Amino acid sequence: MEHIRTTKVEQVKLLDRFSTSNKSLTGTLYLTATHLLFIDSSQRETWILHHHIAAVEKLPLTTSGCPLVIQCKNFRIVHFVVPRERDCHDIYNSLLQLSRTAKYEELYAFSYNPKQNESEQVKGWQLIDLAEEYKRMGVPNDYWQLSDANRDYKICETYPRELYVPRTASKPIIVGSSKFRSKGRFPVLSYYHKNKEAAICRCSQPLSGFSARCLEDEHMLQAISKANPSNRYMYVMDTRPKLNAMANRAAGKGYENEDNYSNIRFQFVGIENIHVMRSSLQKLLEVSGTRGLSVNDFLSGLENSGWLRHIKAVLDAAVFLAKAIAVESASVLVHCSDGWDRTSQVCSLGALLLDSYYRTIKGFMVLIEKDWISFGHKFSDRCCQLDGDPKEISPVFTQFLESVWNLTEQFPQAFEYNEAFLLQIHEHVHSCQFGNFLGNCQKEREELKLKEKTYSLWPFLLSEQKKYQNPLYNPDFSPELTLLEPNTVSFNFKFWRNMYHQFDRSMHPRQSVFNLIMNTSEQNKQLEEDIKELEAKIKQRNRRSDVVLVKEQERTADPAPVALKSPPCFQKEQPPMPVNDAVRTIEGSNTADNRYSELVSEFSKAEPAVVSLEYGVARMTC
Amino acid sequence: MEFAELIKTPRADNVVLHRPFHLAVEGTLCLTGHHLIFSSRRKDNTEELWLLHSNIDSIEKRFVGSLGTIVIRCKDLRIIQLDIPGMEECLNIASSIEALSTLDSVTLMYPFFYRPMFEVLEDGWSSFLLEQEFELLSSVTNEWRLSCVNKEFSVCPSYPPLVIVPKSVDDEALRKVALFRQGSRFPVLSYYHKKNGMAMMRSSQPLTGTNGRRCKEDEKLVNATLRSGRRGFVIDTRPLTVAQQARAKGGGFEQEVHYPQWRRIHKYIERFNILQESFIKLVEACNDQSHNMDRWLSKLEASNWLTHIKELLTAACLAAQCIDREGASVLVHGSEGTDSTLQVTSLAQIILDPRCRTIRGFEALVVREWLQAGHPFQQRCAQSAYSNSKQKWEAPVFLLFLECVWQIHRQFPCSFEFNEHFLILLFEHAYASQFGTFLGNNESERAKLKLPQKTMSLWSWVNRPEELSRFQNPLYEANSLVIWPSVAPQSLQLWEGVFLRWNRTSRFLEEAEEERINIIKYNKELQAKVNALRRQLAELETDGQVQEDGP
User: Fold this and answer.
1) Are residues B395 and B289 both part of a single domain?
2) Which residue in A264, A268, A270, A302 sits closest to A285, CA to CA?
3) What phi and psi values does residue A41 have, to the nearest 5 degrees?
4) B144-147 and A53-58: which strand pairing?
5) Model confidence over A291-330: pLDDT tens digits?
6) Is the peptide bond before A608 cis (omega within 30 degrees of 0)?
C-alpha cells in the first residue's frame, strides 16, 4: 500500500485511558492495509479497523516517546506512546491517509472476502426481502398499492424504487406532491397496522414558504386519511422544533398549514437537528472521557451535553406516534426537513413499539433495511464513510440504537435480541466491511453494484445469532400488534455505559449477570439434549440387560452383589457438568480475554501506584 | 399509658386509599396502638394494608369541603393518601396517627408488644456473639485477646462488654487509652486479614487538644498491631482542616512525632446533617415525575447523593488497599467513631472478606460493626427523608452503607449470597420494625431496655429457611477473592430498588428477574438429572459387564 511507510514498530506502549498512574502495556504495533494491530507482551491483540478511526492526534513529544491518540467511531480511544518520533510521524501520516477514503471502491467492503461463493453471496443479499415485509404488514390491499412511479428513480432519487401509496393517489397527484416536497420525498407508506388499518407514512417538509399551497399534495394527504376506514382525521407530525420549522419558511420550505389540509391534526415534537446532535455527542464524549471525573462533573456534563434529553425527545415522539395508531386508530404522516434523519428515527421506533416482529432478530434487520437503508438515511455522510463534509456527520442512527437499548432495559423480556446485537450493528455501520450501509441511498448502492461486489451483514449476524439472543426473551410477552408502552419519565433514561465505554473494561461490572444467564440458558439446551441421549442409551441398555438378565438368572441363582463393586464406568464418568468458571466470572463482549482471575492479577500487577498515598490524597483507579 | 387515650377515632368507613400505580380502593380504616389498617370491602378483591405507625415519617391533612385527605409519607419512602369523609373524623384520625407515630418512649414501641406467629428455631439475640468471632480469630493468630474491660459498660458506654484488643496490652492500659479517646472509644480490632495478618482497628479521635497531649498507652496499643519495621495507616474520615479545628475542642489527631510509624490519610466523608439533607433532596427529585431531563439531572446532581456514595466507596477501597496491597495495618476514625468510621470499616470488610458476602456473614457484620460498635440507630433512623424535624440527629448513615454494598453487588453480582431484597429489608427494619434489633443506640441501652428478653430479634425471623429463601441470590458462587469495585461515576447508579420503588411499576423487571432465577433453577435440575442418568447408565453398564464376564 502506497500510504504505509512503516509496517511494524516495536516497544510501543498502550496507555490505560483512565489510569491516573500511567498504567501501560508494551508491545508491537503493526500496520496492515485494513487494520492497525497492537500485540502486547502477553500476546493479546487489539485490532483497529482503519475505517473506524475518527481522528488521529499526535501529542507533543514526552520523555518516554511520542504519544499518538486514536479516537474511533465505536468510541474506543487508544493512547499509544511510540519510542521514536519518526516512527510515530510515519504511522500518523499513514493512518491519516488510510482512515480517509476518497472513493467507495477503496472501502474495506470491496476487498473483504468471507470465503463465500457467488450463490451464497446472492442468497445473503436476498435474506431480507422488503417486498415480503410489506406483504407481512398486509399491503397491497384495498386501500394501498405498490406504485411504479419511482421505478427508475425519476421522481425521487433518494427513495427506493418500490413505494406503497394509497390506491386513490394517482400518478399526477404523486408527481405534483413530490414537486412540493423537499428533495421530491413525497408521502409514502412506511408501516401499515393491519388491525387498526392505520398507517405510518413518511415524507419531507412541504415547500410551503409563507403561503404556497399545492393541491396535489393536499390530495395526497387526503388520500392517506381516506385510506384509513377507521378514522377520518390523521396526524401530521413535524419532528422538528417549531422554531426551526418556522425558520425554514423563509427559505421557501416549512410545514403544513392546517387550514389548507382537511382533517389533519398538526403536531410539532421538537427533536433537534443533526448539528445539535453532533455537538451534543461531542460534549458527552468529552465528559465521559475525562480522567478522575467527579460524580457532579459527570452529571452536570451529562445534563449540559443534552444527550439524554435528545434520546428522550426521540422516544417521546415515537410513543406519540404509536399511541395515535394503537389508541386512536389514526394514520400518521411523519416528516422533518428532508425526511431521512428524525423521520427515520421516529417511524422505525414507532413501528417497533407497535409490532413485536421488529423486536425479533430478523425483524430488526428488516426494520433497519426498510426505514433506514431503503428510505435513504445518508449513512455515508452521517458516518463519514468517505472523506467529506464534517458538518454532515451526525449520530442519528446511534440515537436510534440507544433508544432501542432503553426499551430493552424497560422490557427485558420483549426483545429477542440483546445489547450485543445493537453494539455489533453499530460497529458495522461504521466498519464499511459489509455493503449494507455503504452509500447514501438505494440508487447509489445500485450504481456501486454492492450486491455483486460486497457481502451483506445480515447473514453474517444470523450465523452467529447465538451471541445476540436474549435468554430472557418471551415470544408471548406481547401478542402480535399490542403496543409496548414505555415509561418516558426522565429517571428512566440512563447513560449507556456499554456503548460509550465499551472498551473501557475497568468501568464495567466485573461479573456479568447477562453473560451468565446467556451461557446458562445455552447450557440448558445442551443438557436437554444430553438427557435425551442418556435416556435413549438407558432404554437400549435395559432392553439388552433384560435379555442378559433372564439368561443369567437361568444360569445362576446367585448373581454378584453389584452395588458393592465399584463401577468402572462410574469412575471414568466425567465430573458432573463442569462448573464453567469462565462463564460465571467474566463479563464482556470479548469473552476470551476477560477472565476474572486475570483481571484480578492485572490489578495486582498494577500495584503499587494505584493509590498515591504519598500526598495524603488517595485516588482509586480500579 | 393506654394507647386508647391516643386513638380518638378508632375506625372510619368509606375511606378511599390512593397509591401510585394502583386503582383507588374504598374500604375501612382502623387504628390500633401500633398499626394503621386499611381493608377494602369489595368481595371480589379483599385487600388489606397494614402500616406500622412507626413507619410514618410525616402526615399532611387537606380539606375540600367536608372531605378530608390525609397524605402519609413513610420512612420506607412510600406515599399513600387516604380520603376520609367527615371533617371531624379526619382531624381525629390525623391527630391520632400523629401521636401514635411519634411516641417518645421506646418501651411503647411495637417490638415490645409484637408476638411472633412463627416458631423460633434459633434465637437471633445470641446468634452472633463476639466469643465465636474470637474463636475463629484464635485459630489463625494468637496476637489478640478478648477483653472484658468494658464489663457492665464501665469504661465505654457505646462499646459492647467484650472487645478484641492486642494481646500485649492489658486492661489497665485500655482504661488509660479510653481517657485519651473521645467517648472512651479506644482502638479495638475491627477486622483481621488472614491472608497477610494485617489488622484494621477502629476508634474515635484522640484527645490531643491544642497542647498536643499524648498517651503512651495509646501509642503502644496502636503500635502493637504493627509488624516490626512495618508502617501503618491512620485513615481519618475528616479533612485535615476539620481535624485541626477539632483540637480547639479537645479533640485532634495522631501526630507524626508521637506516631512515627503511622502515616495519616485524611479521606473526607460527609457528616450526618449534610447527609440527611442530601437524602431529602434525592427523594424529592425522585418523587417528581414531571421533571424534564435537564431538571432531573441537575436535581440528581444537586442532591450530592452519588458523590457521597463515591467518597465512601473510595475511602473503603483505600482502607482495603492499605491492608491487602500495601500489607499495612490500618486504624480508622473520624470524630466520634460511630458513623463514618463504621461505614469505612464495614465496607472494607465486604471488599476483603468473602465471609461478609454470605447472608450469615453479612448479618454478623451488621451486628459487629454497627449494632455492637455503637452506631446510634435510634437517633439516626428516627426520621427518614420526609421529616421536617430540626433535631439534627437523623442521618441515612446506615442506608448509605447499604447502598454502597448494593453498588458493589451490582459489579459483582455472583459474589454475594444475598440479593437486593435483603439490603432493602435491612433498610426498612432499621427505620421501622416489629423486631427489637435496631432499637436503642448501643449495647448498653439495649441491655437496659432488656431487648433480648422482651423483644424478638430480626435474625430469629430472617434466618428461618422459608424466609431466607427469599433473600438468596441464585447466582451466588463463593468467591474467595478480594473484590475491587469501580468507583468511576459511569459505574455508579441510582439505587432504583429504594428510590424509585414507589415511583414506577416494576412488573416487567420483576418478571425478568423471575425468569433469570428460573433459568438458573432449571439448570440445576437438568444437571442433577444428567448426573443421575449417567450414574444409572454406568451402573447398568457395570451390571452388564459383570454379567457378561460372569461365570
Assistant:
1) yes
2) A302
3) -65, -25
4) unpaired
5) 889 999 999 999 999 999 999 999 999 999 999 999 999 9
6) yes
User: Which of B540, B545, B548 to mutate: most A Cβ within 10 Å?
Assistant: B540
Task: List alpha helices for B125-194, DSSP H.
Answer: 130-138, 171-180
For the entire predicted model, the pTM comes to: 0.91
For residue A523, the chain B residue with the least C-alpha distance is B523
Non-local CB neighbours of A277 within 8 Å, separated by 6+ positions? A310, A394, A395, A396, A399
CA dist A498 and A515 (Å) reads 13
What confidence tens digit (pLDDT) does each residue in B488-543 have?
999 999 999 999 999 998 899 999 999 999 999 999 999 999 999 999 998 888 87
Range of the domain at B491: 130-504
User: Which grid coordinates are listed for B480?
Assistant: 474467595
Known binding residue A546? Answer is no
Q: Looking at the domain assignment, is residue B308 inside a domain?
A: yes
Q: Do residue A562 and residue B539 have CB atoms under 8 angstroms apart? A: yes
Catalytic residue among A336, A347, A383, A432: A336
Edge-to-edge strand ranges of the sheet holding A53-58: A45-49, A35-40, A24-31, A8-15, A77-82, A66-72, A53-58
Q: What three-state secondary structure class fits A75?
A: coil
pLDDT digits (tens, 9 = 90+) for A369-380: 999 999 999 999
Domain contains A529: no
Residue A309's domain comprises: 119-516
What are the Cα distances from residue B84, in Å, to A303, B22, B31, B75, B90?
Answer: 42, 18, 13, 22, 6
> Which residue shows C-alpha cell 378508632?
B10
pLDDT of residue A607: 30
B144 with B278, same domain? yes
Interface of B with A in 127-146 (CB under 8 A): none
> Closest to A509 (Cβ–Cβ): which among B411, B489, B530?
B411
Q: pLDDT tens across A447-499, in order?
A: 999 999 999 999 999 999 999 999 999 999 988 788 999 999 999 999 999 99
Q: Are residues A259 and A227 in the same domain?
A: yes
3-state secondary structure of B164: strand
Q: Terminal CA-to-CA distance of chain B, rounded, Å?
A: 90
Question: Looking at the 3D structure of chain A, how many domains does it have?
Answer: 2
Looking at the structure, tell me whether residues A37 and A147 fall in a common domain.
no
Of the pLDDT bands very low, low, confident and very high (cuts 50, 70, 90), residue A547 is: low
Q: Which residues, 6 or more positions from A576, have their beta carbon under 8 angstroms from its beta carbon?
A: B527, B530, B531, B534
